[in-house]
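Quarterly update, task 2.4: S-adenosylmethionine-bound model.
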Amino acid sequence: MIPALSVRLSDVCSEAFSGGKAPRLIDVGSDHGHLACYALSSGLVETAVCTDIHEAPAKRTDTCLRQNGFSDRSSTYCTDGLDGVPLCEGDVVVMAGLGGNNMADIMERALSSTPASVLKTVTWCLQPQKSIERLREFFAKEGFDILEEKVSVEKGIWYPILRAVYTGVPYDLSLYGKYYGPVLIRKFEDRDPLIIEYFARLDNRYKLRARGDEEVSKLMSERSAST
Ligand SMILES: C[S@@+](CC[C@H](N)C(=O)[O-])C[C@H]1O[C@@H](n2cnc3c(N)ncnc32)[C@H](O)[C@@H]1O
């Protein structure tokens, strides 16, 4: 039976395929394999590649795909990130539930092993569990444009989701943009009620963190000066 997606994963999936169907999904950190099974069964992709750094989740993913009849349209690798999985034109890469540092390291390795012409056609849909600021910093430095940022709320937990594409053109990012997100800031300024509540939560989190983190302390001083 095709597994139902959680609210969070369903939001990740709609963002990943907001541009329409894709030839291939690469799900990095696939764990249970639900996303790939769902994307294949609903015709969002023709093929799927799943990777997980640990053997047990990689096996779980493989079992899920086989049991649902997708052996010939999918493959699963036990590997770190995208190591050993060359990117192809039009790929949609999803990384959900990994940390932002881990994601940036995975993308950095992919950058050095993939021609820019291919990279520019790849969609990255990311739901970092932590350290989203590190990911946005990496995007700005390496030239990944953030096309969309949204927040998924499931069982009282707030999950930011980003969609990005590679342009190769680096840009400046303010501290506010780094920690709150350039697209989310625009939504906040447009008085989006969900984002207003999300920013209030971020304010509380960063106020606490400012006590032991110089950069966040500077961010919060700038923020209180501007409001
Ligand atoms: C919290 S689970 C998230 C599973 C699924 N993506 C989701 O969002 O429901 C994170 C998974 O990523 C895997 N993982 C962590 N770091 C990884 C890496 N560098 N490369 C591949 N898989 C990784 C873990 O083994 C685990 O199965």
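Highlight for this quarter: The domain at 7-172 is CATH 3.40.50.150 (Rossmann fold).
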